[in-house]
Queue: 4 jobs
Job 1
Amino acid sequence: MSTKQKVLLLGATGATGISILDGLLETKQFDVEVLVRPSSVEKPSVQQIKDRGVPLRVSDLNASQEELVSTLQGIGILISAIGPHDVLQQKTLVRAAKSAGIKRFIPCAFITIAPPQGTMLLRDEKEIIYNEIKRLELPYTVIDFGYWHQISFPCLPSGRVDYVVWYMRDIGRFVSRIIVDERTVNKYVYTWGDILTENEILDIVEELSGEKVKSQHKSVQEMENQLDDAQSSLSLDPTDPGKRTLVYIAQYVYSKYVRQDNQPRYANYFGYLDARELYPDFKPISFRELFTEVLQGKGKTPDGH
């Protein structure tokens, strides 16, 4: 009989979820299963997970709490990497996790550092779930990280890096350590790699690629106008996922370039644990290393290969 921690992962086919799944499987210290909706079972991305020998548990998040409790039986750690438009669907899952005796719930955080309310709509909605967790006294860990390397570099005139969709192996490697660390129970943890300015990123990209990249610099006024336009558009139809996405993006940009929230010092101000201090032996991939691999064709393609 296996003595490994049994982990259930929701959202395993998304960019963050795939990295988490890879990190969990890499350690070989977990019995990993994946939670999928009935409508997703036959999708190629889910079949790829099955082909890796990962068992599935099938349930709709809109199911009753009782049904979800049954689905969660025997699970020790529940990790949610649900998509941004479905964050609030975790409410019933949180209650079911409490009833099922889940030892630790990892809600869908995996976002940049920002104030808990009033700056980013997506963060506001995540905090609703965090508060539900705390109301029920369900053991948890919130894990946030900086900007992904692969959304930090610009396109090249040659198009050589356009094939990259996601490339986030460090996320899963961090998660696999954090979820079994007693120091992180009921804590917020911040993971990070490089801290680079936009000019430093452009210098690395141009040096390694040998190509000249056109700057995409926008003024503060332009970013504020973009944010105002996105929010005004969403107010006309708050349920439109496309308009919500534009607000998410505009708020990320404003938080990053104007407020400059996403920094270790700000995470420390909010009381986060620093994963780099918790695991000093862990060496994240640097931006330079990653971009070198991307130029060599080793990044991830749309089909996940």
Job 2
Amino acid sequence: MIELNKIYQAKQKIADFALKTPLSHSHFLSDICNAKIYLKNENLQRTGAYKIRGAYNKIANLSESQKKNGVIAASAGNHAQGVAISAKNFGIKSTIVMPESTPLLKVSATKNLGAEVILKGDNFDESYDFAIKYARKNNMSFIHPFEDDLVIAGQGTVMLEMLDDINDLDAVLVPVGGGGLISGVASAAKQINPDIKIVGVSAKGAPAMYESYKNKKIKNSKSVRTIADGIAVRDVNAKNLDIILECVDDFVQVDDEEIAEAVLFLLEKHKIIVEGAGAASVAALLHKKMKFKKDSKIAAILSGGNIDVQMLNIIIEKGLFKAHRKMQIMVTLIDKPGALLDLTDSLKKANANIVKIDYDRFSTKLDYGDAMISITLETKGFEHQEELRKILKEKAYKFSEIL
């Protein structure tokens, strides 16, 4: 594990640069989990993620000669912004290598912080390989997102802050990709209070660290696919795995559906915007992936809030359909005057609000003289949708549900 004094030194080093983010109580999650749940809002951090802590601590400890040639990093976005803003603070050049699939929001944000951005590779690991070669060729200092004692120590300051606010925490849930955050958090926790349970949470679409933890040896993945791009790491690093095996008490997985539900839950209930990786810890709580004693004090780290607006829109729309607050139906009508009006009157009686309607009379699947109506409706839940189905059946409409 990382020595506790190094984490305290990092806390002093970053004190005037990184924000001390709030640890807020969640009444909603507490009721669901029958425990006292607290959210560590690293989504409110400068650059929107905890990564600034480790990046700043590493760069602050570089020698003047190392700073002279600039720094380079590989990142899916959050580490990139942390390195960029930290380098800018010290007046040194930064280059960031990002996967080609990185959300535009993170690419733009990194460029706006003064970094040169190179898009290379399908995932973090391919970007990483390119960045290492680029660093050697140009004699630059490589700022690793998780395989570095100073970076890990910086991330460990999250745990110190939480204990400053609540010194008797029983457990902490930590999103895990490469393992830098949980390595720092677990190192600090186990040296201050070994009884604090540390639980790692990874995405099922990026299972390498989870499987490595369960098998107690490195198990890399062939590929990764998850909406939690911040923890979409394909290969496991030996240093971080060693710390995780030493200090982490449990490890669970959440799938994309569970992560999306957590993103929507935090948005609706707490008015908090988080990215997929940031919602992983809450997804584990919502779906009860682990057991805690009644009234335990549990902290869930919201590691970042830099979600692409298009992804957020998809999550919201899918969430509304899953929660029976929207539905889409296809209705076959006789194509004559008044037929559509009769249908909308029936929907009005059901108190369903039409948000979109399409009228097709040319489909080869239709009989001559028929028209196909596609209607998207706002509804008030499952029972309301059942009432709507009943009314349509009573009116003898031929209909099917799309979503």
Job 3
Amino acid sequence: MNTLEQLLTTTDTVVLDGAMGTMLFAAGLVAGASPEEWNVAHPDRIRAVHRAYIASGSRIILTNSFGGTRYRLKLHHMEDRVYAFNRAAARNARAEADAVPYPVLVAGSIGPTGELLVPMGNMEFADAQAAFAEQARGLVDGGVDLLWIETMSDLEEVRAAVEGVRSITDLPVCATMSFDTNGRTMMGVTPAQAVRTMAAWGLAAVGANCGNGIDEIEDVIAAMHHEAPGMRLIAKANAGIPQWRNNELLYDATPPVMGHYAQRVRALGATFIGGCCGNGPSHIAAIAEALRVPISDVDLAALLAERANNDNGASDPARRQRTRRRDRD
């Protein structure tokens, strides 16, 4: 039995971590710099982020390797450091996970290449697969428990990542897509199509991250659970909708709001619950606290009625606008 399955024997719902980029910018990372380089240049700062999330209740933490393929690192002229950066990312997370007296799993974060596959772009499938395999080798050698493919928009790129990872290891693989265009990914993939396709690949869990905030993630989880009720689902929502204030990008969901979101997505079928952009340790602490309330003690009828009310646009002008767009489509 792998470590993920062992963890799932002890809990029905697993708390994930929050945003890495949000925390690194707060720690001094400047726009345009490589977060992955910090794994070797500032490992203490990376470990501090992991430590804060573990203290907040995360039972799975993601490595600082989202942009760790040769394609993304080439933007920083560091494509020759793929293995070193990814192995260091895994080791930093592993050190903090092993420092606590209870199981915390390390998931190797693998983000999109930023390129388009042929025929829409110039990246060949075999090249993408090789790039993901190269990244996975560093993560596996650094000690991850599972691989976590995230923020994808193209199912073919997800497949390239899955096949690349599986050419290196038999560790569990999870995958999430970002649904940010009228309930679809940028490449037009629906939640039902995503879960149906990825479930056939034998992934440990699938779901959604990032996107257009809490409401969008709830819609996706509901649709995925309806399509594949037996599939373990992942919900990792942004902390609301970003807004520019005083030349700073801020997210509007407070920790209590994220705790309420955690209860709703659990009711809708999610097993793995955390946060994406804008979420920090306080948000994850609120999620962990909310999920400690047994589902039998949560007024599910009230939660689902609230969601139905939001679907009708009674309390959220932005949601009303999105609903009107879907009605026209």
Job 4
Amino acid sequence: MTRMWNAGIAALLALTSAGKVWAAESTLDSVKKKGFVQCGVSDGLPGFSNPDAKGVWQGMDVDVCRAVAAAVLGDAGKVKYVSLTAKERFTALQSGEVDILSRNTTWTLTRDASLGLTFVGTAYYDGQGFLVNKSLGVKSAKELDGAAICIQSGTTTELNVADYFRANGGMKYTPVVFDTSDQTVKGFESGRCDVLTSDQSQLYALKVKLSKPEEAMVLPEVISKEPLGPAVRQGDDQWFKIVRWTLFAMLNAEEAGLTSTNVDGMLKSDNPDVRRLLGLEEPKGSVLGLDDKWAYHIIKQVGSYGEVFDRNVGSGSPLKIDRGINALWNKGGFMYAPPVR
């Protein structure tokens, strides 16, 4: 009986201890304690996450991290970036090396259900395509039978290519696999492959890196669905909701006509949707464990989704990617956020 009692006490103490550890390891508490958000980004992809000439990280994925820092810490600059290859990214998030993975990563069933992580939403709707030299004389992906194709390892592109060639008459190809996007570009430029394949957004970004970008073209076919978005570790619902509603706040800001330049003036707005988003009416930031100006900080310091898109990959960037399906739902696109209410 004594042994059973002692065993029960030991089990209770273990559970209590585990609960304390879990509470102490809350991502929100950890971020507040260290004073910055640790963000996993790519190893260099213009428009999404790439250091500029001064070493300052820029891009859509970077701005998601900056927005989270603005929401949680009131300062979009309080982010430390960890450059990760496609192979490294999931382990870095699982191990706690980063608080957020914001690295042009496709949301799939396998990744969502078996890697101990959760996608918070879609920040960019994409699809896989093919980049070729114009001198190859190819106008369609269906003309690529027998081609050598440069592919980055650890990505969804490998399976997508295999599926596409198999589904189109069993076409043959030779994969030329690299670990990083830079290596893939160099392989394409050096002639190790005829074609470079990746998400179309990445193809436009990688094309900019070519010594003669005008000699390359992206073929018209889009062979897959690639919803790209940030991910967090499973088991921390509060952090998941903070990151998710950070993305939603930028989308709702664009829909409401809020920008980084007009948000101060909009604090006097009578529009109830605007007032709720800016923390002037319920629900307050406490529902997320944040202060009431969490969304204001995001909009003021980072901008609306439209601003983030335009300056990084859209009309205000070298990439000049059309909004297309990444436009708001009321402007012909897929982008839609639940209301702040």
